[in-house]
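Chapter review: from sequence to fold.
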Amino acid sequence: MFRKRLSDYEQELKWIALVLGFVSTIAAVQDWYPYTMFISLPFCIIWIYCAWLHTEKQFKWINIMFAVVYVYGIVRYFITTL
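The token string follows.
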């Protein structure tokens, strides 16, 4: 049985990240809080994965830091709204 690895979809993931980045920018400009965090987190996760594929250490760690901030913001949002 033929099974594709996630790395086989790298270009498609990058296109998805591009769309997520564009939508996240629109959400930030339109002040659509908290959607900016929910859209930006998958963007960061895709780029973390793509950086790991090519061992781009600096790029990977920058996106990890942003992902941690987004996770913090999402958790804080749910804690304060409940």
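Two observations follow directly from the output. The chain has one domain: 10-81. Helices lie at 10-29, 35-53, 57-81.
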